[in-house]
Amino acid sequence: MNQGGNTQAVAPMDPNSIENRYGVDGSQAHKYSYQYSTGSDSAPWTAHSVENQAVENGNYSNSNYYHPQPTGPATSNVQEIPNTASFTSSSTSGTANVAQDYSGYTPYQTSSDPHNYSNTGYSNYYSGYQQQPSQSYPQPVGAYQNTGAPQPLSSFQNPGSYAGTPSYSGTYYNPADYQTAGGYQSTNYNNQTAGSYPSTIYSNQTPASNQGNYTDYTSNPYQNYTPDAANTHSSTIATTPPVHYQQNYQQWSEYYSQTEVPCAPGTEKLSATSAYSQSFPVPGVTSEMPASNSQPAPSYVQPWRPEADTSHPPSQQPGAAVSTSNDAYWIHQAPSLQAHHPVPPQNHYPSPLETKPLYETPFQGHQRATYPQEMNSQPSFHQAPLGYRQPTQTAPSVDSQRVSKVQIPTNPRIASNLPSGFTKMDKDSTSASAAQAPAYVSVSMPKPKDHTTAMPDPNSFPKSLRGFVERAFARCKDDKEKASCEVALRKIVKKAKEDNTLYTRDWDTEPLSTVTTTNVTNSESSSTQLSSLQNKSPTRRPKSRWEPLVEGKPFVKPASTFSSAVKFGAWNHQNENNKKSSESFQKVDAATGFKPTYSGQNSAKKSFQRPVKRQRFSGGAATAIDDEASSDSDKDLTPYYSSAMALASSAEEKKRRDSRSKRFEKVQGHSRGNDLTKPKNANVGNLHTRRATALRLSKVFDESGSRAVEDIDWDALTVKGTCQEIEKRYLRLTSAPDPATVRPEDVLEKALIMVQDSQKNYLYKCDQLKSIRQDLTVQRIHNQLTAKVYETHARLALEAGDLPEYNQCLSQLKTLYAEGIEGCSLEFAAYSLLYITLHSNNNRELLSSMSRLSEEDKKDEAVRHALSVRAAVTSGNYVMFFRLYKTAPNMNSCLMDLYVEKMRYKAVNFMSRSCRPTIPVSYIVQVLGFTGAASEGTDEKETDGMEECLEWLKTHGANIITDSNGDMLLDTKASSTSLFMPEPEDAVAHGDRNLDVNDFFTRT
Amino acid sequence: MAYVSMGEAHRRITEYLNRFCDAVSYQDSSTLCRLLSFSSNSPPLLSLADALNVFQDASSLIRQSDKFSEYGEILAHLFRSLQSYRVGNLVEAYLAFEKFANAFVQEFRNWESAWALEALYVVCYEIRILAEKADKELTSNGKSPEKLKAAGSLLMKVFGVLAGKGPKRVGALYVTCQLFKTYFKLGTVNLCRSVIRSIETARIFDFEEFPRRDKVTYMYYTGRLEVFNENFPAADSKLSYALQYCNPKRERNIRMILKYLIPVKLSIGIIPKDELLQNYNLHEYTKIVQALRKGDLRLLRHALQEHEDRFLRSGVYLVLEKLELQVYQRLMKKIYIIQKLSDPARAHQLKLEVIAKALRWLEMDMDLDEVECIMTILIYKNLVKGYLAHKSKVVVLSKQDPFPKLNGKPVGS
Question: What region does A429 belong to: left with phi over 0, alpha with psi -120 to 50, or beta?
């Protein structure tokens, strides 16, 4: 996952993920931190990344330390930056990264947790979905985790290896690790559930606090773990798990798509995800299950946050983070010594508003975080106990189930929006239903509490709404504002509820001004920033989403990739908690559903590319290189993505996409309208998807220029034209061909005949033929028609003396003939022979092309003629040459035309050197083939040729005298020294006559 | 394949390993050569290959001893290659040998002195031969032959190791020659240029200091290149050098040189003795030489047609074709001599009709225009001294030396 997301959004992330896999976290993490630090905005992210790395690195105490250093500055930056809100939108890159990281983590953790805790849930899930055997699943999960949070994963993996559940339970720490990893993610996750923001916030805070926490954390819990982690780590290195993971992923994605489809908007997705989690106790957890997350999260949070707090008391951020973490922390941490520190943050939690001010100044994100925390807090509490228990592992399965169920309730939307999916899920999980039910109840209980504190129904709110609220709060500068803001928000929400627009409304786009007039005045600038950031943020999003994909992609089939991408997108939304990303997605989804697919495509491309790279640099040392490379390329891509995403959200673009997709339908011959609108069915359109993916790929290539051409799936790129126009102008393709403008084979045949019969000039024909050739090429048609087109064009080019065009055609013809396609191969063998003799003057080439001719070939008239011409030229036999010129078959004379000038000059030179005293011009006319241009009668012809010859001789510096009979004579002695080769009259400075201005005009 | 017992196999392999390591430690190049020379098909190597096929786990044997494992990579690849070679899987053999060669070159780079040059020569030679065989196998399987190309790039790498300063430079020319052979075979002759440049422009090493064997080979190939370029004087000097210094007992080599030297010499007007052609079995040239002697255009054309394939492949066709003008010159000279016998006073006037008649006797049907054209070319190229009077259709020959000899200069200079 990480990889996928990384590619899109943040280059650095990718490496991390990769590293995670390989366990080479330390070095990479460093790099990341540095990269981020450079950019102010990114600074927080660096911290995040660092944190992530730290988490990953958990095993390495050193790495953790390193991270803190960079993070320090980063955090400071963050604090200074008023844009907490910006956080969400803005530091798109940063946020995106964070989100990505987190998303990656959360899912993993959740999944991991579920695995650990409830096998039953899994089985249920599987059975329901039938996608994969439960066993295989766990393994993938392990891999998954590795990717996401390397160390935790590693530790996890061991459990994930699953078979060793007992070991799991036995080692208290393992669960703890689990939780840590999971917890981290889960915290994020929770935030997400509450509002995608919290997670981001968390990450933000993390830079400062987390780092500190990390160190502590690592020292405390990790130390214990470390041995295990290390072991696991090594094990994780095995590449196989990723594969499993991917596979699972696909399945998952499919699942997702299904579930998600029903609920187009992001909110729905959330719900879907939740449903998802339900259905998959384990998997769901990974992706979006708040409940599942909550369990791990709490545990995780506790260790983390407390530590963070302790380590970084000065940083207020921890407070915010604390809120989420606190909950978990409280319960969980209570046992642990560090827990105490976190407590203060927890305090904050109870009084979220109060805490908010603190956070606000530093980060909007904090606010958000707090918010979600508040929201989540209760659940988290509940969960926390659960999580706690889990570590104890007394009854892991039950807990997990509960958790999952809890989550379900938390997301009322799911139920409402996706009843079908929901029910399904329930059914699936029926086996664990008994346990679940109670869990559900408990969960629901906490929620109300949360609501009371901040919002009516935070959990039930759509993500986007949460984000909206967070944004609103983020703008508040002080408590007063906050209070007013809160009032306003409540009103809005209430109204929305009454209108039943709570879930349908696009909160992402909802203007904040509605919330607070007062706020607006204060924070206009910030709002603008936000908006701009928001626009940008989507770009980031895709990357993060793709994280999971990346790993899965390479192995995934194209079709599945498509769907998976979609799923992932949804998933990411949830995971990331980044409102913006979710916003964009939601919009898209709501509108057409095509958008997600689009993103999916992106991810697909990435994933395709990625795997290759990864394979290449499987070594730990190489990862660093990979790092840099990928980051570079990603950087290049960001603008593209951002623009793409921005476009995607616009109505216009949607329309266009729609139409394009319809076009594809036509092409594919099966209607995919449903598929497009509903990502669910994305799997169906294999071809379409593949093609789209490939196109995307190719675009990416264009953008980055760093991908190898051989990575392109040419089959997928092949277009089948639908255009029925016979005439088409040639335009050099600057983008992927559009089937609507490409003519199918039968139309091309007509077009060829049209060109052949056309009375128009060469430029027109050339243009038409080029467009025919282009259409043939994009449709990859290699047959007799192709040969015919190239032959026609080659002949026309010869006729017009267009050697460059002729050469292009000839080289194509050579390959066509070599493929065994019939055509006038001998005719063109003669041409090529003539061309070599007359124009390239390369002896070796001539020899080889002569030796290629069989005896049979030499009997062909054209070939024989060409060979005689060759002999005449090599010996300088001008008489022979011009005789052959007159008797040339096919277009041989056209090629000879281009040599006539040279030959005549040579001949006159010979004559004037060898003959004395004079040569009659009439003889020259006869011997050197001066026939005159316009010739009707024979007499006229003579004189015409005479005039032409005289003209020619004069321009070449010959000395002409007239004898007593009035006959024109060439004075050879005088001429022998005065002959010269004149500059061609039609020569142009740039050397290409075809670029002549007049021609240019006639062309256009 | 005779049955080899496990113990015997073990003994053979160990013996080979011992000999290899001893050769390296005593810097015994000739022994090493023998140990590496696949294509010699020497009995010890073949029996070793049999042993390897029986005793599959030779690599563990290598690993057992520090002495062997020092060259473990080299030996392991070598063994694998030998195994495949023995079984007849030449592509596999080549691949393993390429790995071996890489490892060996790496090791060679580390050796201060150039003691192992001979062994390196063997490696270079073997890899080229193996690549050619592997390509043959690939072609017969319908796959694209590419191993020789790969061998070429490996040889280029070896060249890079040797081309610098120091005692190892002596070996550069050998590798160059192997490269020439590769490139000529591949038809990528233009790749020779860079190697030639680094050999000929380097002032740090006198060409004469290279081993004679390599110098001869080098001159042969560069001479051939000059033939392609129709730079006859240069080709003449290079091929003559090769002929002069090559081992006179190696008839095959002499013949190869003569195959190019004779056309070159003919183009600059030097005609070989018949014995030479006979001694070296160069019958394809006998008719051409006869045609030149007699001025028999028909014979020349027939000879060219007869051996067209061979001449085209060796690349001398165009050179030989250009001898036509000399044949014309000879014919003119004969006509001139005949005329002189009958009418010395007007012997220097050659009527075009007479020439056309002579050509007709040779079954060359040409009209006067064409004959005139030929004559202008002959005069222009200075094969005939004089002028052509167009009006009277007569070639007026110079009274002094109307048919100048080329005397080692190419036509038209």
Answer: alpha
Domain final residue, candidates B189, B210, B231: B210
| HSE (side-chain half, CA atoms, 13 Å) at A141 | 38
Q: Which two tokens stand for residue A982?
A: 């004149």
Partners of B349 in the beta sheet? Answer: B396
Give the amino acid at B172: A
Any domain includes B206: yes
| B29 within domain boundaries | yes
Closest-approach residue (CA) in chain B for A917: B389
Tell me whether residues A846 and B318 touch, CB distance under 8 A: yes
* B164 and B39 belong to one structural domain: yes
Is the Cβ pair B389, A920 closer than 8 Å?
A: no
Walk me through the domains of chain A, giving residue ranges and CATH numbers. 2-516 (no CATH), 739-897 (1.25.40.990), 915-1004 (1.10.10)
- Residue of A843, A915, A920 with shortest CB distance to B376: A915
Whether B172 is covered by a domain: the verdict is: yes
Distance from CA of A956 to the nearest CA of B (A): 19
Q: How far is A913 from chain B (nearest CA, A)?
A: 6
Q: In this structure, what DSSP letter does residue A454 have? A: S
Question: Across the 413 residues of chain B, what is the mean pLDDT of every consecutive 10-residue run?
Answer: 73 84 84 82 81 76 75 83 85 89 87 83 90 88 83 89 79 89 86 84 73 89 89 91 89 90 90 88 89 90 90 88 90 90 85 89 86 89 88 86 83 70
What ipTM describes this predicted complex? Answer: 0.81
- Using the 3D structure, point to which of B210, B231, B266 is the last residue of a domain: B210
The CATH number of whichever domain residue B389 belongs to comes to 1.10.10.10
Q: B49 with B192, same domain?
A: yes
Distance from CA of A1000 to the nearest CA of B (A): 39
Cβ-defined contact of B380 to A918 (cutoff 8 Å):
no
Tell me how far apart the terminal alpha carbons of chain B are, to the nearest angstrom: 65
Closest CA to A266 of A590, A692, A713, A21: A590
C-alpha B404 chain-centroid distance:
33
A-chain residues near B380 (CB < 8 A): 909-910, 913-914
pTM above 0.80, yes or no: no
Q: How many Å lie between the alpha carbon of B378 and the closest alpha carbon of chain A?
A: 9
Shared domain check, B51 and B198: yes
How many distinct structural domains can be found in chain B?
Answer: 2
B318/A843 touch (CB, cutoff 8 Å), yes or no: yes
What's the pLDDT tens digit per position in A77-131?
333 333 333 333 333 333 333 333 333 333 343 333 434 443 333 434 443 343 3
Dist. CA A323–CA A366, nearest whole Å:
9
One domain, residues B337 and B194? no
- DSSP, collapsed to helix, strand or coil, labels residue B386 as strand
Greater pLDDT, B292 or A26: B292
Q: Is residue B252 part of a domain?
A: no
- Which of A843, A877, A878 has its CB closest to that of B228? A843
Write out pLDDT tens, residues A436-473.
Answer: 333 343 333 433 333 433 444 445 566 666 666 676 66
Cis amide linkage into residue A917, ω under 30° from 0: yes
- Does the CA dihedral A964-A965-A968-A970 come out positive or negative? negative
Quote the tokens at residue A421: 């999916």
A910–B377 CB contact, under 8 Å: yes
Instruction: State pLDDT tens for residues A725-748.
Output: 778 888 888 887 778 888 888 888
Tell me how far apart the alpha carbons of residues A264 and A590 are, in angstroms, rounded to a whole number: 5
d(CA A585, CA A489): 24
Count of residues in chain B: 413
CA dist B159 and B237 (Å) reads 26
The residue segments making up the domain with residue B366 are 324-397
How far apart (Å, rounded) are the C-alpha atoms in residues A634 and A290?
A: 31
